[in-house]
Each structure stands twice: as C-alpha cells, then as structure tokens.
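Handout, section B. The chain below has 172 residues.
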Amino acid sequence: MKKYILGLVVFFSVLTFSANAFALKVAVVDLNKALQDCQAGIDAKSMLQKIIQAKKTVIDNKQQELNALAQKIQNPSTPKKEKQQLEVEYQTKARDLERYKADATDDVVSKEREYTQNIINGLVETVKNISQKEGIDLVFEVHQGLVYWNDALDITPQVIKEYNKIYEQSKK
C-alpha cells in the first residue's frame, strides 16, 4: 500500500512539474492603438499635418495664379496675341500644378510610411524588452487573427508608457 501511495505521489509530482515546465506566459498588444496613442505617434501626426498644410498653401497659391490667368484669357479686351501667350502659360502652369500635387501626395505618403515604420520598430523593440523583463514567452498582435483575449493579457498601456519614456529621452 505504501508503494502504491508513493507511486501516486511521484506520478502527480512529475505531472505537475511537467505541466509547469511547459506553461507559457502569453500577452497581447495592439500596435495600432500604441502607434496612435504614444507621444511619437501624436508628434508624427502633427508634423504630417504641418507638411500637408504647407503643401496645400502652395497648391492654393498656384491655383489662384491659374484662375487669374484664366480671367485674363477670357477677358474680351485682351489682345489675341497676348491671349495665345497666356494660354501657353496657363497650360504650362496647369501641368506644373498637377505635377506638384502628385509630388506632394507622394512626399506625404513617403513621410507617413517613414514615421510609421520608425515608430513601429521602436514599439516592437519595447515589446521585446517588456517581454524579457516580465518573462513573457509569446506576444500576439491583436489584429492578427485573434478572436478573444482577456484584458489582463493586454500589455498595450505598458508598451505606450515605456515607449513614451524612451521617446522623451531621445528628444533631449
């Protein structure tokens, strides 16, 4: 009987040890939320708005020039020879405006990608650091096919807080 009880104790001890040996600590993170809520993301959004506003001002000025040229062309008192020159100038400026709009759009998209990629890289590095400190084995991004998770597993606020500290130190 003692052997039987001892055998059961050993069996359950091994079973418990094995279960603990394979237990994983899992967390989730919402990188989109972290990107939007971290100070670097807020600053990047602000910088992009300034770039967009500056380009919009240039576009508006060029459009006003085109409108003024169009009025001169349509003015009946404008001589025919001058109208022809103005039409050529109008077409040139209209093409320049379209090129500028396309270049401005490309520039804004490029800057947005650059800012986003830099911030995401920093956030991922922060997730790695937090995971190592907290002993987390797996971190899932919530937008990559997860259907449900317990809010206690979400480390997004911690990632934002830690990344903001790193970002503020890098600004100094």
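Note. Residues 25-171 form a domain with the Protein Binding, DinI Protein; Chain A fold (CATH 3.30.910.20). Compare this with the example in section A.
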